[in-house]
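Hey, can you fold this one?
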Amino acid sequence: MVLTWHASDSELGGIHRHCFKCFNLKKCNRDEDACGVLECPVGCGWMFHSCKEEEHLLLCPMVRVECINSSLGCGIMLTRKELVKHLPICPASIVACTQEWNRWPLHCKERYKTVPFRQRNPRAERGQLDYELAIRDQRMVGEFYKVPRKTKLALRNNLTRRFPALPLPPHTVRKANLTDQSLLSLREAVKFEVSDETSLGITSTYGVAKMFLKNQEVQAKRWKDDVDQAILRTGQPVPKRYWEYPELERGNIHRHCAYCHNSKCTKRNNLLSVDDDYPDEEVWTQCCQVVNCPWECGAVYHHCKAFEHKMICPQYEEEGEFDWMQRDRMKGVSRSKKAKAPPPLKEFPDLLTGPTLCPPKPTRTGVVPKPPPPPPDLSTTMRFDIKVETVTRLQQKPRAMYTFLCGQELRRDQWEGHCKNVHSEIHGGLNNWIEARATCPLSSYGCSFSTRRLYPRIDSRARVVYSQDTMSFEIRPPPVELKPSKRGGKSLTDLPSELLQVIFSYLDSWSLSNIALANNLLREAARSLLDEKGCVALQWEKIDTRGVGGKGGWVVGYKRWFFSNYFCPVNHWGVNADGAVSEHLKNCPYNIKAEHRKPDVKSKGWKDFMEALGVRMKQKRESEWFIE
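Sure. Predicted structure:
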């Protein structure tokens, strides 16, 4: 603290010495170099010496200032006292939801360790909440496999050891033209990969990937030095690495055969024709016989090169696990004498078909049969367990388990309601609570019927839905029944824009984002509410100035304004007790009822049936198959 009587003129900064220590204007005697007293020009009611006006404007609650998130896209001007109330609803104050959940692949050995028997997914239909969320997760896994492998390794950590949390950052999915081989395109293609110095002079290591590679190199060098030092301390020389032995480069191929390409090589035969017993043992052990390809591709080579030839032989077919059993069986059949095939058995006539009951339909020859149905689409075939697993965030996940993130961008005041309604109530009740499965007694036969136990708010016609376009849960309000007007009522587009803005101000963000897709008029009306109910985020773009001597960098390309997927908070949930199961059983396709009726023995149909049955019984007794 600078004392008044020791402060210099430069330290006072244009404030008089009397005014520097004067804070109570009621007792101010205005002696020495005191200046006049002023009232705040903005109107906050504060009084001060005129030389302190500049400092007061830095603290005055009535001065209009920019939002502290102006650099992030918020351009609103408001008084300083309103800044505290504005920050929770600031469109640039965005929070990304990091809630996560886990799923097992449907066929996974690690999953079966905790399950007593193999459990299949229930038969599901589109529109069911748990199935819709599983489709979203499966689509993200498909996008994950488009990422380069080395980038996947860089995104792993100790918690997700094999599969990183999905969805990945948008820039990791590489979208490039495969036919474009220009230097700029190649630089863009490798900039997200994790590798060493490339032939293009590009060091493609960035962020976490660069730290990962550096730690790997340091650790490998440390291990190598530790092993070498430990061997040297014993007084023994450091042994050569396996790649330093030249004899291992040939892969167990004889010395002569490694350099022999003559298909008519007779060196082995010459050695066999020598009368002496193995005159040169070294030469004998470094040569083998020339053989033909057993798969009849026409190649001739030394026998020690059979493994290498198998890798490039066009006629080679890899044998299956049980082909050796079939091969031995065919050898035994070829050696044995061919036995005569027994005569075909006489077909026994069917008792339920005959000329009086089911006359044979004439078959048309030469008609092309109908093609088989196409295979199911792999994108709609569920390959993950519908049941959602929850592993604590800081707990290590199993290697085969996938981790998924919510990733919704919300305003700061919307985050609490989003976590409560979406993740605590809807997401936490997917496993057979909100979406009640196996409620139909015939579900074990394949019935996919499910009921909603809970409905939002008061009206039971309101439903929880999942949108694949926005990848979020939403609340669909109950339908409104409008009575037709005799005068021909007006539509929403007939109202003035001022009235539309007032009506839209009562809607939530999710409803505004949907109504903005209707037409241009409603889109402009919803656009006027972006400052009040929307969000803004900066979109960065990379610029390349290396051609003009620069280093390149990132700049803000534009500001993206959008409505979040937040809906009005649900404070009450009702229980559905409308007897949906009993109504479903009346029309369930698996509920096949057996009707027992007494036949009319006096009808003509019954007499024809008994006469035909008697004819069939007589044929049975007269056949050679009948046993008395």
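Residues 175-207, 275-279, 332-336 have pLDDT under 50 and may be disordered. Let me know if you want another pass with a different chain boundary.
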